[in-house]
From TrEMBL:
This is 5'-methylthioadenosine/S-adenosylhomocysteine nucleosidase. PANTHER family: 5'-METHYLTHIOADENOSINE/S-ADENOSYLHOMOCYSTEINE NUCLEOSIDASE, 5'-METHYLTHIOADENOSINE_S-ADENOSYLHOMOCYSTEINE NUCLEOSIDASE. Residues 6-242 form the Nucleoside phosphorylase domain. It comes from Actinocorallia libanotica. Pfam families: PNP_UDP_1. SUPFAM superfamilies: Purine and uridine phosphorylases (SSF53167).
Length: 386
């Protein structure tokens, strides 16, 4: 899947529908274990979204978030939904973006009471910076119907447990005020999603919540007044704008990587040395980014068909990441098909034809330095076998 794809998860159908409305021609993506996602591009944007419904609770959220991460290898994971406000300065319909997620149910029960053992996950600095920029830009509110109070975006901690809090005086409410008094809102899935992302190479995860009630016993009233739907619409609008910005950031990163730039350093994405017969090659490098592939030698991959198959996979990934347009991608695949057909023939193999096809591929993908360097390595491999 594309590294620029963003996974968006929700707990409730109303939350799912609010995001789905913003997708153009969403297509069903079936996971082998039965989970259904819908994948589509944002209307009027370039970002591709994989949308999933996890149901209520941190455990379900963690399991299906892990499933989505493994299936799509996304650039980021966003969780969007509603929450109850824990502070009076938050208005109904406002949006809360979690800077930290507290799992507030952890603790130990002793003779003198329950001792808190909280767990906390902090949003990554980069994702937090992008979310704050989206909030400042305010263009995300263009989709919200006029005539209503413009929602504000608040950044701060949220708490995630396994209960719906609908009281300001219950034991749970007192516990949260005592131990998590900086939390802006309370919900039921953020901790599970944050944990799943933490276990996957610190994948950027942002939890976005619309304030639908005040967690103070008035939830039935606010639900009758349709605040849940309004809060969901506001949170979905912010989330999709954030997804577009995160995807653009991923595309910029892919482009700079493909061009061989790392920060202010200019460097080639690949170093390739070729040795024939009994020659040996050594590489000295202060730092190595990415994998190392060795072609040639007794223990190395010397099958050009395998190398071409691996290249085809990377072309597919580059096309999905929008590094190659459709025409370029199709033309490159045609040339690789020509090379494979020659290699599969039972008669004498015309390596000149294979080399020519690969050189055409190199010309087609020349703007993507990593791919061009890999094609050059395969050409050297083919030529070394003649």
């Amino acid at each position: 899947m594309s590294s620029n794809l963003i996974v968006v998860l929700t707990a409730l159908d109303v939350e799912y529908d609010a995001v789905r409305e913003k997708l153009s021609d969403p297509q069903i993506h079936r996971h082998p274990q039965g989970t259904r996602f819908e994948v589509g591009r944002l209307v009027g944007g370039r970002c591709r979204i994989a949308l999933g419904l996890v149901g209520k609770g941190n455990q379900a959220a963690a399991v299906l978030a892990e499933r989505a991460i493994t299936e799509f290898d996304p650039a980021a994971l966003l969780f969007v939904g509603v929450a109850g406000a824990l502070h009076f300065h938050l208005a109904l319909g406002d949006v809360v973006v979690a800077t930290h997620v507290y799992a507030f149910h952890g603790g130990t029960s002793e003779d003198d009471g329950f001792k808190s053992r909280p767990r906390v996950w902090e949003v990554s600095h980069g994702a937090d910076q992008i979310a704050r920029h989206v909030a400042r830009d305010r263009t995300w509110m263009d989709e919200i119907r006029t005539g209503r109070r413009a929602p504000e975006v608040h950044f701060g901690p949220i708490t995630a447990g396994e209960v719906v809090l609908n009281s300001a005086v219950s034991a749970h409410a007192r516990w949260i005020r005592q131990h998590y008094n900086d939390a802006l809102a309370i919900e039921m899935e953020g901790a599970g999603v944050a944990q799943a992302a933490h276990l996957n190479r610190a994948l950027p995860v942002v939890v976005v919540r619309g304030v639908s009630d005040r967690a103070d016993g008035t939830k039935e009233t606010t639900d009758r007044e349709q605040w849940q739907a309004r809060a969901v619409a506001n949170a979905a609008a912010f989330t999709t704008a954030l997804a577009e910005s995160l995807a653009a950031e991923a595309r910029d990163h892919d482009r700079s990587t493909a061009n061989g730039t790392r920060g202010n350093l200019e460097m080639s994405e690949m170093i390739h040395n070729v040795a024939k017969d009994n020659a040996q090659v050594g590489v000295q490098a202060g730092r190595v980014y990415g994998g190392i592939r060795v072609y040639g030698g007794q223990d190395a991959q010397t099958d050009p068909a395998e190398a071409i198959a691996a290249l085809e996979t990377r072309l597919q990934q580059a096309h999905a990441a929008e590094q190659l347009d459709e025409n370029t991608y199709s033309a490159a695949l045609e040339e690789l098909a020509t090379a494979r057909e020659v290699l599969r023939s039972n008669g004498p193999q015309d390596m000149g034809t294979v080399t020519l096809a690969l050189k055409k591929v190199r010309g087609l993908v020349g703007d993507v330095a990593a791919l061009a360097a890999e094609v050059t390595s395969i050409i050297a491999l083919v030529q070394g076998l003649t």
